[in-house]
Design brief:
This protein has helices at residues 12-24, 62-71, 79-93, 104-126, 150-160, 198-210, 218-224, 239-256, 280-288, 322-327, 334-345, 378-395, 405-412, 418-421, 440-445, 449-472, 479-482, and strands at 2-4, 32-34, 46-47, 130-131, 138-142, 165-169, 173-177, 182-186, 313-317, 353-357, 364-367, 370-373, 399-403, 426-427, 433-437. It has 486 residues and is α/β, with parallel strands linked by helices. The chain has 4 domains: 2-121, no CATH class; 127-192, no CATH class; 198-249, no CATH class; 280-471, Uracil-DNA glycosylase-like domain (Uracil-DNA Glycosylase, subunit E, 3-Layer(aba) Sandwich), CATH 3.40.470. Strands 4-5-6-7-8 form a 5-stranded mixed β-sheet. It has a 5-stranded mixed β-sheet with strand order 10-9-13-15-14, with helices on both faces. Strands 2-1-3 form a 3-stranded parallel β-sheet, covered by helices on one side. Helix 2 (62-71) crosses helix 4 (104-126) and helix 3 packs across helix 4 (104-126). The longest helix has 24 residues, at 449-472. It is elongated. The termini are far apart. Bound molecules: uracil. Residues 317-321, 324, 330-331, 333, 335-336, 357, 441 line the site of uracil.
Length: 486
């Protein structure tokens, strides 16, 4: 009997070194005890690393390596032996062994890799960072993964929360990110992570608001969010109450169910040719009968911009949503409420702004009684652009804020990459300054509290440039040259 060691046991490179040594010495799978796991070390023999090499030229496919990388994170003590057996058999029986899905070794490897994939998916969804009291922007999360996946998943969190300082503690290992690199260390306990933080309140309020009792399916919820993860999730504390109240809330919703919206699209009328001296009101009336693309058909009405005609600042969104379509006013639904909240935090008066959209009709997909938002196509954005230009030419703002990629592309051109351009001033040919930023609806689409907080912060940071501009307007500042976030 020979022994082979893999340290740390989830590490692909460590397993490859041991497997290469064993194969090089032509030690068959059944003659190796891996990491002392299988036989309690009683039969431990010479380490394969010390054996003389009898064969070279071992080659394995990238498919095998990617399965092996996942399998090694599983806690099954037999995983090293299984992988070596597969390696050995691929040399003996042919490289296409992995394609034989009914082979017991192949099937077992796939089962283990799948379990690790599931665990990884759950960890991505259910890690919750908490702010470390007394430290500036430092966060710690406690998580108990089923398998040894921390090293495998850490680069995901580093990419996702690149701008934060954070650590994740698990019972077997920890990892910390300082903004530049990952450092791994020993495991910890739940008590090592902060118990609670202020952002949890934001997340719980948000969760309670987006929880839709009409779509409650407790069985599906438990399979998506298994109960063993609930201890990591602040929102789980709300679930028993939300589930209990769901029946009453659904009945209330049914009683309040709105009538089918009354269509407000006027009969087809010849589109007048607008003249430069026509007022914004004339443009608004003409847009009400717009048929420049097919979106007028299912929509309730054209949602034109609103605000003072002499506004210095125009905010442009993508298109009206469900509530905007029903009410006829821009930014009155969930995204509008978030925008209002942020404007209020920054001391910006919404009434002083002109708010409009790149596309003036709601594009949606009907799913039962619900109308689900769909992004407008580029031809719909192009068809609607003349209305936006008519609005901008009447208002002649000093500053245009584009919320999201659709607005930014409608104003600044199709090639624009929002994430690369946001949070900086740009200059239009008209002389107006443009500030592209993220859309509040995108912020609300973030499905975990940390991503939500980060996305919201991005929007607040960008709109702070607008706040600065508004505060210093009187100084006739050249925004494009003079203002930056610093
Ligand atoms: N999203 C937008 O882009 N505009 C609105 O008016 C509402 C939601």
């Amino acid at each position: 009997m020979f022994t082979a060691r893999v340290d740390p046991p989830w590490d692909l490179e460590a397993w490859r070194v041991a497997a290469r040594a064993a194969w090089g010495a032509q030690v068959p799978p059944e003659a190796i005890e891996w990491n002392g796991d299988a036989q309690g070390g009683l039969l431990a023999g010479q380490d394969v690393a010390a054996l003389p090499r009898r064969r070279d030229g071992l080659r394995v496919s990238s498919d095998f390596l990617s399965v092996a990388a996942a399998v090694l994170c599983h806690r099954d003590p037999q995983r090293f032996a299984l992988l070596y057996r597969l390696l050995w058999r691929m040399e003996m029986e042919g490289r296409d062994l992995l394609a034989h899905a009914t082979d017991p070794d192949v099937r077992r490897a796939q089962v283990l890799a799948k379990a690790v994939g599931r665990d990884t998916h759950k960890m991505k969804a259910f890690v919750r960072f908490r702010e470390v009291p007394g430290e500036d922007e430092a966060f710690v999360a406690w998580f108990e993964p089923e398998h040894q996946i921390l090293d495998r998943i850490a680069p995901f969190f580093a990419r996702r929360f690149a701008g934060m300082r954070w650590a994740i503690l698990t019972p077997y290992r920890s990892v910390a990110w300082d903004g530049t690199g990952l450092a791994f260390g020993p495991g910890g306990t739940r008590a090592d992570a902060p118990a609670d933080d202020a952002r949890e309140a934001l997340w719980k309020t948000y969760y309670a608001n987006i929880f839709n009792p009409a779509r409650l399916n407790p069985t599906m919820m438990r399979s998506e969010m298994p109960q063993k993860y609930w201890k990591h999730l602040p929102e789980a504390q709300l679930l028993p109450d939300l589930i209990q109240q769901a029946g009453v809330r659904v009945r209330e919703m049914a009683e309040r169910a709105p009538e089918a919206p009354r269509r407000r699209i006027p009969d087809a009328a010849p589109q007048p040719t607008l003249r430069a001296e026509d007022s914004l009101e004339v443009v608004r009336d003409a847009a009400a009968a717009c048929r420049r693309c097919e979106l007028w058909q299912p929509a309730t009405r054209t949602v034109f911009g609103e605000g003072p005609v002499d506004a210095k600042v125009v905010l442009i969104g993508e298109q009206p949503g469900d509530e905007e379509d029903l009410s006829g006013r821009p930014f009155v639904g969930p995204a509008g409420r978030l925008l209002d909240q942020i404007l209020a935090e920054l001391g910006i008066d919404r009434q002083a702004l002109y708010l409009t959209n790149a596309v003036k009709h709601f594009r949606f997909e009907q799913r039962g009684k619900r109308r689900l938002h769909r992004n407008p196509s580029s031809s719909q954005v192009a068809a609607c652009r003349p209305w936006l230009m008519e609005e901008l030419s009447r208002i002649d703002p000093a500053v245009v804020v584009c919320l999201g990629a659709t607005a930014a592309q409608a104003v600044m051109g199709g090639g624009l990459k929002l994430m690369a351009s946001r949070g900086r001033w740009h200059r239009l040919e008209s002389g107006a300054c443009v500030l592209p930023t993220v859309h509040p609806a995108w912020v609300l689409r973030q499905r975990d509290p940390d991503a939500l907080a980060q996305a919201r912060r991005a929007l607040v940071d960008d709109l702070r440039l607008l706040q600065m501009w508004m505060a210093r307007q009187g100084e006739a500042l050249d925004v494009a040259a003079g203002l930056s976030r610093s």
